[in-house]
Amino acid sequence: MLQSEIKSSFVELGNFLRQFSEEGNVKSASVLHNDLFFDNFASLIELSQSHNGWFTPEQVLHSIQSWAKALTEDNLNQWLSNYDFSKIEPKKVGLILAGNIPLVGFHDFLSVLISGHDVLVKTSSNDQHLLKFLANYLIAVEPKLKSKITFVEGKLEGFDAVIATGSNNTARYFEYYFKDKPSIIRKNRNSVAVLNGTESHENLVGLGEDIFRYFGLGCRNVSKLFVPKGYNFETFFKAMYEYRDVIHYEKYANNYDYNKAVFLMSNFQLLDNEFLTIKEDVSYSSPISSVFYEFYDDLEEIKNRLHTDAEQIQCIVSKNLIPNSIAFGQTQQPKLWDYADNVDTLAFLISLK
């Protein structure tokens, strides 16, 4: 199957997804197969929270819009232009997907197919429906894809290579189980923000997006702040107030109440605004509804620390304080060429023999 055919199918998928947004769903007569898929997808979005309590329509639509923006012909061409696919020998690539945020495994799914391989997908029990629906849409657009996409219910078998995502504990199992196969094994990572006190209100509101989007469940969510000694958190909390409605989601509120109680019973010092706690802590991984922070004296020390701990870090957010850091509010808007864990998935897939 030609790469141009696969690419065209994903461009059509992007056109389909572009119809769905938080502002409302708008059906376009120019989109293929809307008669079969539009109403059913709108219903699936509304039902997603019944399948996973974290997958509110707002969060699902945000993920859909992110992929709608990414799946354009220009973006796909720019992404693919840096690779040589001429020597690809199609293999069966198994995917073991996470389910922490909606469509979290879609980039791996896209990468396997666009590189010419066949994909065997084992979805997470927390996100079983969205990717299967989009796969069915792709097959409707290009029936040849049907033989290249398989969803696996039981044990993953018959694969030549694997891309697996899980916790640090699960990753150790994956590394042992898949030791004889080419693999990418993804572990826990967290994202951090480095502040110096000159950030504007708009910058910090953007940081709130990086903290609260998907309720903080993603590896691209900021869970740790580095702030200069003597930093005044008043401006930070004023900006976070934009996200106060998050406490109205029951699962988030339950986590906020529980984690706050645990911290207080342990006599930890907290700063709290009634929907977010921040706690001084050296760890990168904070619980839901909480962000850790750490003071610094010397920015160079933070740069060195983040370089040393690179394998624990997914994204760094700052106002140009750290080289290659991401602008505030952009962590959940990755480009196609922004690879998870900085592992080039396409280079891995091209290398399979």
Quick recap of the structure?
The chain has 353 residues and is of the alpha/beta class. It is built from 12 helices and 11 strands. It has helices at residues 3-17, 34-51, 57-70, 73-80, 106-114, 130-141, 168-177, 201-212, 234-240, 250-265, 299-308, 345-351; strands spanning 92-96, 118-122, 149-151, 161-165, 183-186, 190-194, 222-228, 270-272, 277-280, 290-296, 313-318.
Give an account of the 3D structure.
The protein has 353 residues and is α/β, with parallel strands linked by helices. The protein has helices at 3-17, 34-51, 57-70, 73-80, 106-114, 130-141, 168-177, 201-212, 234-240, 250-265, 299-308, 345-351, and strands at 92-96, 118-122, 149-151, 161-165, 183-186, 190-194, 222-228, 270-272, 277-280, 290-296, 313-318. Helix 1 crosses helix 6 (130-141) and helix 8 (201-212) crosses helix 9 (234-240). It starts with a helix and ends with a helix.
The end-to-end span amounts to 18 Å
Gyration radius (Cα, Å) is: 21 Å
Helix-strand sequence: HHHHEHEHEEHEEHEHHEEEHEH
Strand content: 15-25%
Strand tally is 11
Write the layout of secondary structure elements.
Elements: H1 3-17, H2 34-51, H3 57-70, H4 73-80, E1 92-96, H5 106-114, E2 118-122, H6 130-141, E3 149-151, E4 161-165, H7 168-177, E5 183-186, E6 190-194, H8 201-212, E7 222-228, H9 234-240, H10 250-265, E8 270-272, E9 277-280, E10 290-296, H11 299-308, E11 313-318, H12 345-351
